[in-house]
Amino acid sequence: HRTGVMDIASGTPLPEDAIFRIYSMTKPVTAVAVMMLVEDGLCAIDDPVAKYIPSFANGRVYLSGDADNYESEPARRDITIKHLLTHTGGLIYANQASPTIAELYKRTGVVFFEPHDSFADAVDAIAGLPLVSHPGDEWHYSVSHDILGRLIEVLSGQTFDKFLQTRIFDPLGMVDTGFQIAPKNHHRLAANYGYDKVTGDLKDISDFSADRFLNGGALLSGGGGLVSTSADYLRFARMMLNCGELDGARLLKPETVALMTTNHVDGDIPDMGELMHSGYSMAGIGFGLIGAV
To answer: What is the tens place of the pLDDT at every residue in 155-167?
Structure first.
């Protein structure tokens, strides 16, 4: 059963193949890609990220001060791949950070849904920022999966989008999932709405993010850069539900899927310092290698 419209202005009925921005539902796809490389023997989840992206060596943790004059201390441990997968590496999103950390993030000029000269340079810029906590100590929703996108490139020798296409989307028959929409399918991108923070009115914010999907040029965001259809993403979800295989295409071993869907943080997320997230209680919620559990 379908309901809804492509956009409010025209009232065009929503088709079965409508393309949506899937934002953070990109993260599970990135996590599967990382774990495929683990199965390939190219890395282990406890490996330091700096082993593959040297700019993450010798991390420091913010203590006090403003963006122009702040104090930090050496991180007690290295950020690992597992820390990135579980959002426990000490990274954060600028809009969820303290004013000082938010300002430092903004000064890098790195926004993963906007154009940038180099994926590698962008990730190195993030690596140069102070962490908000010692790796492994706290849970903070973060740019971790954007870093993982670059890690996938380093490990595989392919661009991030090419790896996802050849290793995940093609085998699963996810024909409408990717970082860009072919011109012939531009009309299938559903409008995107939000509420005006001042007036409270509903407004079309499609222009905020449509250009990167229609024309490209943006960084390949492993944290929120994909578009997909409901049918495509259902195939991805069914693959996970079926322990890593769908219609003869096996992406992961059953034991890997079990590992990914097991809690890997110390207790639940409130035990890791985050009582509420996006207005919801985190009580009783842990985090695996692919998402909340």
So the answer is: 999 999 999 999 9
Residue 206, pLDDT score: 67
Concatenating the DSSP letter of every residue in 101-142 gives HHHHHHHTT--TTSB-S-HHHHHHHHHTSPBSS-TTT-----
Q: Is the pLDDT of residue 115 over 80?
A: no
Burial category of 211 from C-beta neighbours within 10 Å (exposed 0-12, middle 13-18, buried 19 and up): middle
What is residue 231's predicted lDDT score, i.e. its pLDDT?
97
Place of tokens 């706290």: 138
Judge contact between 177 and 46, C-beta under 8 A. Answer: no
Residues ≥6 apart with Cβ < 8 Å to 5: 11, 12, 13, 14
Cα-trace Rg, the chain: 19
**Region of poorest pLDDT, from 111-115, 137-141, 169-173, 227-231:** 111-115
| Collapsed DSSP state (helix, strand, coil) of residue 220 | coil
Q: What is the pLDDT of residue 1?
A: 67
**What is the SS3 assignment for 171-194?**
HHCCCCCECCCCHHHHHHECCCEE
Per-residue model confidence (pLDDT) at position 117: 78
Cβ atoms within 10 A of the Cβ of 168, count?
20
